[in-house]
Amino acid sequence: MKILITGAFGQLGTALTEALINKYSNNSVVATDLHIRDTFDCETLELDATNLEALDEVVRTHQITQIYHLAAVLSAKGELEPLKTWDLNNSTFFNVLEAARLNDVRKVFFPSSIAVFGADARNQITSNDFPLNPTTVYGISKVAGEQWANYYNIKYGMDVRCLRYPGLISYQSFPGGGTTDYAVDIFHKAIKGEDFECYLRKDTQLPMLYMDDAIDATIRLMDAPKKAITRVGYNIQGMSFSPEMIAEEIRKNIPKLTVVYNPDNRQKIAESWPVALDDTPARMDWGWEPEYDLKRMTEEMLYRLDQKKRTNAFMHA
Ligand code: VAH
């Protein structure tokens, strides 16, 4: 087992790289990103996934057997430069698929997103088979990614699997350029006793997932026997909440938290996404079962961030 991760220093990559090292071993993981900001307890390389030759060489020389392709521009940042986002998100995934095909890498993981759906999905619990009508470049690139994954599976017998992640909430690192980033930022402000300015309306409900559950789902999906897999893209969610719902939950622990609502361009993106997802196929096919609801996730996030705050204070004392 030799796993290559692209985008290893992103919000998902940071947690997933650690989890894969713990599950397999530090010799089984090669963590890469465009810029190396720190090092994991495994081989850590600088890699530009837009460069097929460089990617092909890493796959070949490290005898990679699985690739987790996490590098991508997220929804909000992606709307600032649509064509560049389309080019980057798609050329990197093409390179991963081609490097995998040319080096007989059988298994590839591609992170899809609730962004594959459009505003017509917003008035119900969105089923896995609901029509995909994305209205962000990020969402369009995720639909294209799922379709290309299906093409390589059929044409070349590869085993590319995708999860449609909701907003991810984690304490290990900040998200970057997403529409759901508020759900992480609010915890950091609450822990510091600062007011929080929210860029979404207080009643904008979205599907969300605590990172531990996202990691569990990813590893469970990739470990599942091929015969259990009935589709390329799986809906998953842990909970569904709005800014005022998470603020209320945090106030059970930090009563003074003040939130000011100042919607910006991300409001329109959020309103084009589902309120909640039906993840029955993931539950039926490979045993998906979230552990964290809003209450437990809030308690865990506040505990972890408070721990980090105390550690930092001690380190700088
Ligand atoms: C984003 N966090 O906001 C990502 C995610 C469901 C949202 O894909 O773009």
TrEMBL record:
Organism: Leeuwenhoekiella aestuarii
One MF term in the entry's GO annotations: L-threonine 3-dehydrogenase activity
SUPFAM superfamilies: NAD(P)-binding Rossmann-fold domains
Signal sequence coordinates: none
Name assigned to this protein: Nucleoside-diphosphate-sugar epimerase
InterPro entries: Epimerase_deHydtase (IPR001509), NAD(P)-bd_dom_sf (IPR036291), NAD(P)_epim/dehydratase (IPR051225)
Family as reported in the entry's similarity comment: Belongs to the NAD(P)-dependent epimerase/dehydratase family.
Chain ranges of the NAD-dependent epimerase/dehydratase domain: 3-236
GO BP: any one term: L-threonine catabolic process
One Pfam assignment: Epimerase
